[in-house]
Amino acid sequence: MINREAQLLEDAGYWRSWFGFRIIQKTRESSEITSFHLAPLDGKPLPSYLPGQYISIRTLVPDIHYLQARQYSLGDAPYHDYYRFTIKKEHSLDLDDPNAKAHPGYILNILHNERDVGDAVEVSHPAGNLFLDTRQQDSSDGPIVLISAGVGLTPDLSTFNTLIAKASKRRISWVHASRSPWVQAFRDHVKNIVNTHDNVQSHVFIREHGQDDVEGVDYHFTGRMSLNKLDTDHDIFIHDPRAEYYICGPENLMADIARYLEGQGVESKRIKIEVFGTEEIPRPEQE
């Protein structure tokens, strides 16, 4: 963890230390996913970032009084007045449990339960190599397939929103897996974009649904995500040599998808992967 943070700061250029930010908005996106909007304490314009990059958030761990940092993807198009990140709460984790501090999701629940609008956190400069390069105007007109599972949608959402904000004419396919429609974050946002943009389509896989959920509207497939269920030309552009694939989610699922794409002849350089997970809290050294 320490080496990774040092590398982030080294890559940041002039922003080489932790900056103070304040939570200016906290939005519940679904029954278990929440977004945080952060603004700098000094009120100055923020440096931009490339869609798909992430920041480190550093906050105090209660009881042990130990600062801990975690990396979270920026989940919106780049704006100069705020950063937004989105995280999933671990509902089975009780922060009052003495053993909770060793749980990988402990920091997530601290942010969910104990950090609110007005609270301060420390933030690193945006970093990361899984990004859509928007620095060159119209660098590519090939289609983009954004594949995600669960809260792993956040870096793909940044790419998605950036393309929409730039009024890109590139064909965009949003492929997402969620446990159910009611835990799926940004569901209405994606549906609205699909309904108003002829170049955008979505394909949602769920494991369970309610009586009021409509196939073809709230979801498209049941069961584990499988690209075999999609049309290789219309939905995921397998035979277009310009197509780019951005895959974000649990390691096993993402590896399976990458293997499928490569097996279909997609070059590995056109497949970008970000594995989502949590890390245990390292214990402070005893003096």
Structural account:
This is nitric oxide dioxygenase. Its EC number is 1.14.12.17. It catalyses: 2 nitric oxide + NADH + 2 O2 = 2 nitrate + NAD(+) + H(+); 2 nitric oxide + NADPH + 2 O2 = 2 nitrate + NADP(+) + H(+). The protein is of the alpha/beta class. The protein folds into 2 domains: 2-123, Translation factors (Elongation Factor Tu (Ef-tu), domain 3); 144-275, 3-Layer(aba) Sandwich (Rossmann fold). The chain has helices spanning 2-11, 106-114, 153-165, 187-196, 251-263; strands at 19-28, 33-40, 54-61, 66-73, 83-88, 120-123, 144-149, 172-178, 200-206, 221-222, 244-249, 271-275. A 6-stranded antiparallel beta sheet has the order 4-3-6-1-2-5, with helices on one face. Mean pLDDT is 85; it is low at 278-287.
Unreliable parts: 278-287
The largest pleated sheet is described as:
6 strands, antiparallel
Work out the count of structural domains: 2
**What's the CATH topology label of the largest domain?**
Rossmann fold
Note the main attributes of this structure.
NAD, 12 strands, 2 domains, 6-stranded parallel beta sheet, metal ion binding, 6-stranded antiparallel beta sheet, 287 residues, Elongation Factor Tu (Ef-tu), domain 3, alpha/beta, 27% strand, FAD binding, Rossmann fold, globular, disordered C terminus
